[in-house]
């Protein structure tokens, strides 16, 4: 199963008189991994919510898999900073919630994919933060989404768990072929996971930087160069290039 292409055409979003995103034009190719970066409040989460159908646009078009997004759609899944599990349901039951056919065997298989086999009957409260995010990932992946949207899902995790989760997300993305859009404050994480890093500032796309490295994106001098370039872009405004 392949990921869907995402096309944003002249996309504008205002909350009342507050213009957050202005005339955004962006294509994310089918199966591509794109990271959105930018200062706090620049509209990254708003952009993800627009793509998912959780928030309505003010103007423009959001086309996913050739269709205009009008509402929430199970083919497009969203993972938040907080795992948002139901504490009164077991791990397995939480994963089943994401399944259109409520299939237990599939839920068990997906839990295995995220490395949580044996924890099916545990309560969310008894899991670590990283394990809870794995459950949330399993719940998002059980329906085999075409697009996975991640809004800083690793920012609350310790550094080591975070590295493990980055590798897990990369592996699942490579195996399952969904299109990935990730919001992160961590430039290293963006360069590690993304084929392209998009910087948003003042409602516009200020940088659209392909990461031309062989996967896995290691920690060599080229990676460091990319990280510096993106960090410089976040720190000081540049000319709009899109
Ligand atoms: N539901 C809402 N109603 C009104 N304003 C909102 C709403 N959601 C977001 N905003 C405003 O839109 C702007 C962009 O918010 P958004 O959450 O998209 O930023 P962000 O880039 O994700 O920030 P952060 O990095 O801190 O998560 C902010 O000024 C925010 O206050
Ligand atoms: Mg946000």
Automatic annotation (TrEMBL):
<keyword id="KW-0067">ATP-binding</keyword>
<keyword id="KW-1278">Translocase</keyword>
<protein>
    <submittedName>
        <fullName>ABC transporter ATP-binding protein</fullName>
    </submittedName>
</protein>
<dbReference type="InterPro" id="IPR027417">
    <property type="entry name" value="P-loop_NTPase"/>
</dbReference>
<dbReference type="Pfam" id="PF00005">
    <property type="entry name" value="ABC_tran"/>
</dbReference>
<feature type="domain" description="ABC transporter">
    <location>
        <begin position="6"/>
        <end position="227"/>
    </location>
</feature>
<dbReference type="InterPro" id="IPR003593">
    <property type="entry name" value="AAA+_ATPase"/>
</dbReference>
<dbReference type="InterPro" id="IPR017871">
    <property type="entry name" value="ABC_transporter-like_CS"/>
</dbReference>
<dbReference type="GO" id="GO:0005524">
    <property type="term" value="F:ATP binding"/>
</dbReference>
<keyword id="KW-0472">Membrane</keyword>
<dbReference type="InterPro" id="IPR050166">
    <property type="entry name" value="ABC_transporter_ATP-bind"/>
</dbReference>
<keyword id="KW-0547">Nucleotide-binding</keyword>
<dbReference type="InterPro" id="IPR003439">
    <property type="entry name" value="ABC_transporter-like_ATP-bd"/>
</dbReference>
<keyword id="KW-0813">Transport</keyword>
<dbReference type="GO" id="GO:0016887">
    <property type="term" value="F:ATP hydrolysis activity"/>
</dbReference>
<keyword id="KW-1003">Cell membrane</keyword>
